[in-house]
Write a structure and sequence with these properties.
This protein is globular. About 30% of the residues lie in helices and about 35% in strands. The protein contains 6 helices and 9 strands; from the N terminus they run ααβαβαββαβββαββ. The termini are far apart.
Length: about 210
């Protein structure tokens, strides 16, 4: 599916997104923030890649971090901008490398609720290494495919309405972390409705 079409699909539900998350009783953004908390310093720069309406980086902003975000959905960015907590927001596709940021610009990178919309994560992990400073923290989530449907391969795909949804095998993630010199710090599974997601917090090698 063309990326412009994917962006339009996300635009279509942007206005209802925050209320849907609340109705779904989803707190994965709070969990990811909590897992990162001990590594944060007020005033540090954070990039939220796939910032959407801003739910995932708002807790970090309240903790005193300087928030920068990018997303390919102009409608989502408009909602995030209206919350007035981000230092800068850019419309950019996470799969379009290089990202519009200099090398080693950020202390923290967050990708929450993003990777299950992306088949291949190789470019993203390469850009994560590039834009993070040495010792920087990369926090992200992945979706775990149901056991009875899980593929023995690296990536499992299913369709959910108009969306293609992907589950990345832990071994695939671990291989990318090793390739790009990230050290795993914390890995925690959680339920979102009946689905299981994994929260990963890793550190760029010094």
């Amino acid at each position: 599916m063309a990326q412009q079409t994917k962006a339009a699909l996300h635009d279509a539900y942007a206005a209802e997104y925050d209320s849907q998350v609340l109705a779904y009783d989803c707190h994965i953004t709070d969990l990811l923030f909590g897992l990162c908390y001990e590594y944060l310093q007020s005033g540090e720069r954070l990039l939220d890649a796939g910032i959407g309406s801003g739910l995932s980086s708002l807790p970090f902003a309240k903790a005193g971090l300087e928030i920068h975000g990018m997303d390919f959905s102009p409608a989502m960015l408009g909602i995030c901008r209206s919350k007035d907590f981000a230092h800068s927001l850019k419309q950019h596709d996470i799969l379009d490398a290089p990202w519009p940021f200099p090398n080693e610009q950020f202390a923290v990178l967050v990708c929450c609720g993003v990777f299950h919309f992306v088949a291949s994560l190789d470019k993203i992990f390469g850009e994560a290494r590039r834009v993070l400073r040495s010792g920087g923290i990369f926090a992200f989530t992945t979706w775990a495919a149901p056991v009875q449907e899980a593929s023995p391969g690296e990536v499992f795909q299913e369709n959910s309405g108009d969306f293609e949804i992907y589950s990345h095998a832990p071994g695939y993630i671990e291989a990318l972390l090793e390739k790009e010199a990230f050290k795993p710090l914390k890995v925690q599974n959680c339920y979102v409705g009946e689905d299981i997601f994994t929260c990963w917090v890793v550190k760029k090698a010094v």
